[in-house]
Amino acid sequence: MLLCQISDTHIKADRKLAYGIVDTAAMLERCVAQVLKLPQRPDAVIVTGDLVDFGRADEYALLRELLAPLTMPLYLMPGNHDERVQLRASFPDHPYLRQWKPFVQYAIDDHPLRIVALDTVIPMQGGGTLCGERLAWLDRTLALAPDKPTVVALHHPPFITGIGHMDRISLSGAGELAAVIARHPQVERVIAGHLHRPITARFAGTVASTCPSPAHQVALDIAPNAADNYILEPPGFQLHWWNGQTLVTHSAYVGDFDGPYPFRVGGKLID
Fold first, then answer.
1. Which runs of consecutive H residues, i.e. helices, occur in the chain?
2. DSSP-assigned beta bridge partners for residue 187
């Protein structure tokens, strides 16, 4: 199974530029086109939060339009820029968004790799949390399928990254999450967004990782006083390949690049 992860699309109404510079709508269009051109088309796509910038109906309407070319199953999750009620109202044809209320948490059992999504949103705040109610749901849900390989998805990563300004809006309840994950060894990966960078950490006996944005990236500055900056590094997304035994993650970049060129011609290595 090939699961595509896109994160932090930050769509604004009327295609307004983010921060007056970043054309997030055009960049998501290019990302979707790149996904559809992959030699192996993903079996599903998950978008791990910060779908839009202000949680408004007109923003979600544009997001629908931009994601419409994707023909595979699509799963959406809220981030700190999203609004749960409006997300559900804007995607009435996505019943998994209403599996459990009040939080947008769900399990998808339709694929060889199970997908379990968590809601870390605190309304009107940049940081996230996993309260006892949300974690109890996770524990119960994982216990229902102990033998099925599973990806747990959330917006805020459950680890400190070293990028100071992002760590100040990190996840409360990460230790409690680790205790739950450690009880369920079928969890192959914990995937997250929020950081606009590909970052990996060991976590609760498995691996936790974040995904680059198809738009702007958080500037790489591993310091507690890191400035609150973004950078227009190459945009990207990730592909999580479950081969039946191991989950392997590839970071892919969006853009027009030279190549591919053959290493060999007529069986001979090119000097």
1. 24-36, 57-67, 84-90, 132-143, 164-167, 174-182
2. 150
pLDDT value, residue 221? 97
Residue 67, C-beta contacts closer than 8 angstroms, at least 6 positions apart? 28, 32, 47, 74
Tokens of 218: 């958080």
Euclidean distance between CA atoms 226 and 243, whole angstroms: 39
Q: Count CA within 13 A, CB hemisphere, residue 197.
A: 17
Contact 230, 171 (CB under 8 A): no
pLDDT-derived band at 110 (thresholds 50, 70, 90) equals very high
d(CA 128, CA 75): 20
Whether the CB-CB separation of 106 and 97 falls below 8 Å is answered with: yes
3-state class of 106 per DSSP? Answer: strand
Share of the chain above pLDDT 90, in %: 96
Contact residues for 222 (Cβ-Cβ < 8 A; gap 6+): 161, 162, 163
CA angle 220, 225, 226 (to 5 degrees): 20
Dist CA 25 CA 30 (whole Å)? 9
Partnered with residue 75 across adjacent β-strands are 46
Cα–Cα dist 128/123, whole Å: 9
Asked whether the beta carbons of 245 and 232 are under 8 A apart, the reply is no
